[in-house]
Amino acid sequence: MDDTHIRNIGIMAHIDAGKTTTTERILFYTGENYRIGEVDNGEASMDFLEQEQDRGITISSAATTCYWKDHKINIIDTPGHVDFTAEVERSLRVLDGAVAVLCAVSGVEPQTETVWRQADHYQVPRIIFVNKMDRLGADFYSVIKQVGAKFAIECVPLFLPVGCESDFSGVIDLIDKSMISFDFNSFGSTMERLPIPSEMEELSNQWYEHIIDAVSAYSDEITELFFAGEEIPKDLLLKALRKGTIERKIVPVFVGASLKNIGVQTLLDGIVRFLPSPLDIPPMKGVTVKHNTEVAVKHDPKAQPLALIFKIQFDREAGPLCFVRVYSGVLRKGTAILNITKKKRERINRIVRMHANKPEPIDELAAGDIGVVIGFKNAQTGDTIGSEGSQILLENMVFPEPVISVAIEPKTLSDQDKLKDALQILSQEDPTFTWKEHTDTGQLVISGMGELHLDVLVTRLTKEMKVDARVGNPQVTYRETITKSITITEAFSKILAGKENNATVTLTVKPLATGSGIKYRSLVPEKTMGQDLFDAIRRGVENSVRSGIKFGYEIIDMEVVLESVRYSELFSTPFAFEAATSICMETACREASPVLLEPIMRVDIVVPSQYVGEVMGSLTARGGIINSLESRTLADHIIAKAPLAKLFGYSTALRSSTQGRGTFTMEFSHFAPKGDQ
User: I need a surface site. Which of 297, 421, 520, 561 has the fewest CB within 10 A?
Assistant: First the structure.
C-alpha cells in the first residue's frame, strides 16, 4: 500500500457529541469489529479503560487501525472533557486530518471551540460530521450557521438530512444527486440509492450551487462549465473540494446519526476523499541537535529514521507501550535506536499495530504511519527517536501547567514504594500530571488539570494499580513572581574538607509579562571560566526557581541575567558557584517585591435562559467576571473568568440551582496576583 492511501485522523468533539459511538460504527463497517459495542452499556472497544466504561467518557486517546476502500485509516479517538486537554493536544500534534463531530441539537459547544482552536494551532485540515440527527430538537441548518459564525470558515455541506428527529430516514448526496437510505436490518451496512424526493429538489439544487460557489476559487474550469450551463464532472468537483479542505479554506460537512447507523459510511468515504495523506501535508519542523538550526523533515521512507513518541500507555505484561508517529525512514523490529531527547540508546523489541486494544505484531513501521513500539525503558511523551547519524529534535510539545493539587499517602508504610512507582508510571503517561515529595514533611503531593482529572488518576491508582491510598482535599497550586527589577551581588566562601570554596556572583532579576515563563541569559562570556562552572550557576538558578520565594511555590514570569562573576582558578568550585547563585537568587527575589499568583480559570457555562440571572449572580459571588453572554435557541452560553480556589464544588452548586440542566467546563486561563484578575 503506497503512502497516498494512508490517513492519520483524529475524531474530536465536545463531551457527549457521539465521538466514541461514531468510532465504534467505523470499526464495525470496516470489519474491525464483528458486532457493535455501545458506550451506553459499557461495551465500546475504544473506551477500554475500566473507568471509561464506568463513566461513559473517553479519557485516553485510543489508537486503532482499520481499512476502507484500499485505504489504511489510523484513527485516534480523543477525549472531549477539558480536563484531558493534553490528550487532545498530543494527538492533534501527529495527525494529518481530523473529523469534528458536532451534536445536531447542541451545535458548537465550549469544548468544541477549544479543540477547534487546538486544531488551528497545529494546522490540521478537518471535516465536520453533524451527528444525532435523530434526537429531539435536531437542527442541521442551525449548526451550519453556528460553525460559520463561530469559526469564520466556509462550511460546505455535501449531504443534507432527509427528515429530522424520529423522522430522520436518510441523507441526500448533493454531488451524486441522489438520496441514500440505510438498511435497518444490516445495521446500516446495506445502502440504497434512490431519486431525491420531489419536495427536496429545490433545496438540494440551492446547496449544490453553494458547493460550486465554494470550490470555484480552486478551479477556473468548474466556474466556466457552470456559467456555460454544462455538466460538471464529479472527479473535477472532488479534486477541488480536496484541495480546499487540505488548504483549510473550506470544511466539507457530513450528516447522520451514528446510533441509528445512518451516514457513517458516507463519512468514511469523505475521510478517504478529502483528508490529506502523509504526502499532502507540509514537512515537519525540527531542530538539529548539533547546530541548533531549524530544518524541514520531509516525508521520505528512504531517509534516516525519525519519529515522535506522542503517547505512552503502561501495560502490566509488556511495560510501556510507546505510540509513535514516523516522519521519515523506517523503524524495524529488533534494531537499536537513539532517544534523541534523552540522549540514550534504546532497543525496539517489538512493533505492534493497535486495533482498539488488540495488538497485531508487525516487523516495521514506515514514514507516515502510526504504531506502537515496545521495549523502551526511558521514553517519555514528546520524545524524538531517530538515528545517531542524523540527530534532529522534532518540535517540543508544550503542555499546560497543572493547577490543582491533593496530598496522597499510602494506607500502610509497606505500600510507600509501590505508590511512588505507580505515580512515576502515571506521570510518564500523562505530562499534565506531576507529583513531588516535600523534603521537610515527606508528604506526597499530586497535581493535575482539574478535579475530574485527579479523581480519574486516583481511581486508576487504587483500582488498576492496586495501591491502597488516602487522598486529601483538593488544594490550589499557586505560583510566585516579582514586581520590580533589582541587581544583587553575593559571595560564598567556606573551607570544606580542608579545601577553600570561593565564588562571587552578580545577578539581575526582572519581572516579565504574564505567560512569559522563566528566561535566563548570561552577559559573562563562556570562555571566562569552564563549562562546569557555568552549568553550576544555571543549576543554582533552576533550583531557586523551583523552590519559590516566600511560600515555596514555583516562580514564573521572571528574567534572570548573570551580570558578572568573580572567580579564582585555585579556589572556585562548581559547588561554590551553585551555592553563591542560590543565595543571590533568594536575596534578589525577596527584595524585588514578590507577589503570590493564583490560577484564574476560563469558565464556560451552558444553561436554560430562565436560570441565567441566578447563575451569573452565583459566579460573581465566587469572584468571577462575566466576559460574554450569548443567547441560543435552547440555552444561553456564559463565558467568565474566576479564581480556581472559589470554584471547588461548583458543578454540584450549578446542578442544584438549575435542576440538573446546567453544564459547565473550565480550563486554565492565566495566573494573576491573588485577589486581582
Answer: 421
What is the value of pTM for the model shown? Answer: 0.71
Alpha carbon distance 162, 240 (integer Å): 26
SS (H, E, C) 143-169: HHHHHHHHHCCEEEECEEEECCHHHCC
State the CATH number of the domain containing residue 262. Answer: 3.40.50.300
Of 98, 19, 1, nearest in space to 58 by CA: 19
Domain-terminating residue out of 232, 253, 274: 274
For the chain, the domain total comes to 5
Nearest CA-CA partner of 314 in 271, 357, 284: 357
CB count in 10 Å sphere of residue 523: 10
What is residue 377's three-state secondary structure? Answer: coil
Query: Alpha-carbon torsion 313, 319, 321, 322, what sign?
Result: positive
Cβ–Cβ < 8 Å for 405, 475: yes
Please give the single-letter amino acid code of residue 567. Y
**Could you count the other beta carbons within 10 Å of the beta carbon of residue 425?**
18
d(CA 558, CA 215): 49
Scored b (16 or more CB within 10 A) or e, 544-571 reads bbeebbeeebbbbbbbbbbeebebeeee
* Residue 279 maps to a domain: no
- Phi and psi of 146, rounded to 5°? -60, -45
Residue 590 DSSP symbol: H
Q: Split the chain (677 residues) into runs of 10 and give each run's mean pLDDT.
A: 80 73 80 49 40 34 76 74 56 84 85 79 89 89 89 90 86 91 75 88 91 84 82 88 90 90 90 90 82 82 87 76 88 89 87 75 88 84 83 72 83 84 82 77 80 80 82 86 94 84 93 90 82 89 91 92 86 88 95 93 86 89 89 80 87 81 80 76
Contact assessment for residue 553 and residue 673, using Cβ atoms and an 8 Å cutoff: no
CB atoms within 10 A of CB 313: 21
Burial class (CB in 10 A: 0-12, 13-18, 19+), 455: middle
How far apart are alpha carbons 75 and 27 in whole angstroms? 10
The whole-angstrom separation of Cα 164 and Cα 262 is: 12
